[in-house]
Design goal:
4% strand, five-stranded parallel beta sheet, elongated, 4 domains, single chain, mainly alpha
């Protein structure tokens, strides 16, 4: 099991990954912690960044539920510091100066002012594709920087407090070091005093959120997730509100990553394929619209995984891992896909031969039926003319047929379980697959014999008449 970290603008992903190998996810929002525990039960959860305005914030009770499930939860820097201060009595572990400020209600050296507002850590940031770049500066970073400037004698304590008060009156989206010149002008500061602070900030500013985020990851690197001495006992109450939350969370669609959204954009460039696959996806959703998708047991998942590997020729673990990585699938995503596969297999088995009739209707709807029907009639006619029966000869060996089909037609090796492969295609068994392959191989040979003279004539090597 791995540690899952919810991270956004507080620390660049590349820097975080250099400190701790973990499952990094976007800033946390309501329902994310609950779904994470349901899907993969991580070794620990670290909350650094989270949404608090555009979408519902992570709920205290889902963190309590994770703790009740025996999963350590840590917080620092931003949303994590807020929730850790609030839930410290119940076992959530906080790290860093910002967490300590929220826990104690004061951020040194501003002892005369209560430190409790969530806007202290709020920032505006860019899109995930760019790594959540901060487009404003957090109030707590402004506080820490002005406090450091005063401690080093760049400004006095009075100016420090005036600057903090001026920024605190601004909306969080309008707070930034870039606006400091304007703020100091509004305060009527002397040019020399302003220049000294601006010059010092070029190298002296304090990024407290970043420092606290690093401290949390370092704590986990040193084995902090394995220590339980800070845990507190409590009884988790499963209220009606909690039941409603669970129902909503389990019914929520999984969020798409930036890479996955780009894949959808690429698909849209082929309108016919997009429309076809969108209809298939819609039918999958409708199939389970009324009943939640059950979590398959380990044995069913293994069978579904075996079928998936046969389908795509993933004959080794390395090939499977490469395929999953190329498909942007983590372990939780692969399990979700396998649960769908299990449910579809169960529905397929229940449908029986009715599925073939439905499949024909799909072919007609997508206008693929005519070409297949024409090919089937042509095959039957040619085989009858050649062998005086619609059945192809059965003298071809099973192994030669399978080698021809998998290597020459599909361009891959035969799976270990060829009989299972045949059943996956809807055949009753291997014998039926081999009969179809024998007819197909003879048919292709007949087509090649018919087309060869025409090709020779076009090349000028055959005889022709006019």
């Amino acid at each position: 099991m791995t540690v899952t970290v919810f991270l956004g603008p507080s620390l660049p992903r590349e820097e975080a990954a250099g400190l701790l190998r973990a499952d990094y996810r976007p800033p946390v929002r309501q329902g994310d912690v609950y779904r994470l525990v349901q899907e993969s039960r991580p070794a620990a959860i670290a909350i650094i960044d989270g949404y608090f305005q555009e979408v519902p914030s992570v709920w205290h009770k889902e963190i309590l539920w994770a703790l009740d499930q025996g999963i350590p939860v840590f917080g620092a820097a931003s949303m994590g510091a807020l929730r850790a201060a609030e839930l410290e009595p119940f076992g959530m572990v906080g790290i860093g100066r910002i967490y300590e400020g929220f826990r104690d209600g004061v951020f040194t050296p501003f002892e005369d002012e209560a430190f409790e507002d969530d806007d202290e850590v709020a920032v505006v940031h860019g899109p995930p594709e760019l790594g959540y770049p901060a487009l404003s500066d957090a109030m707590v970073d402004l506080r820490a920087s002005f406090a450091a400037a005063a401690q080093q004698g760049v400004i006095d304590a009075g100016l420090r407090d005036r600057l903090v008060a001026a920024y605190k009156q601004r909306f969080f989206r309008e707070r930034s070091f870039a606006s400091l010149s304007a703020v100091m002008a509004e305060l009527g500061l002397e040019r020399a005093e302003s220049s000294a602070l601006l010059d010092w900030l070029e190298t002296g500013r304090v990024d407290q959120k970043r420092e606290d985020a690093r401290a949390l990851l370092q704590h986990l690197t040193e084995g902090g997730a394995d220590r339980r001495e800070t845990e507190r006992g409590f009884v988790f109450e499963r209220t009606t509100l909690w039941a409603q939350f669970v129902e909503q969370s389990e019914g929520a669609a999984p969020l798409l990553s930036a890479a996955e959204r780009k894949v959808i954009d690429e698909l849209r460039l082929d309108p016919q394929l997009y429309d076809s696959l969108r209809m298939t996806a819609l039918l999958r959703l409708r199939l389970y619209a009324e009943d939640p998708l059950p979590v398959a047991d380990a044995a069913a998942r293994r069978k579904a995984l075996d079928r998936l590997r046969r389908r795509h020729g993933l004959l080794s673990r390395e090939a499977l891992d490469r395929w999953a990585a190329a498909c942007d699938l983590d372990r939780a995503g692969l399990n979700r896909l396998l649960d769908f596969e299990v449910a579809l297999d169960q529905s397929r088995d229940a449908a029986g031969r009715d599925l073939d009739a439905a499949l024909l209707d799909v072919l007609r709807s997508e206008d693929r039926y005519r070409a297949l029907a024409e090919r089937a009639r042509d095959k039957e006619e040619r085989l009858k003319q050649t062998f005086e029966t619609e059945d192809a000869p059965s003298a071809l060996s099973s192994q030669s047929l399978l080698d021809w089909y998998f290597e020459d037609c599909l361009g891959r090796g035969a799976p270990d379980d060829v009989a299972g492969f045949a059943r996956d295609l809807g055949f009753d068994g291997l014998k039926d697959l081999l009969a179809v392959l024998a007819r197909e191989k003879v048919y292709r040979a007949l087509l090649a014999d018919t087309q060869a003279p025409l090709a020779a004539a076009k090349d000028g090597r055959g005889r022709g008449t006019v």
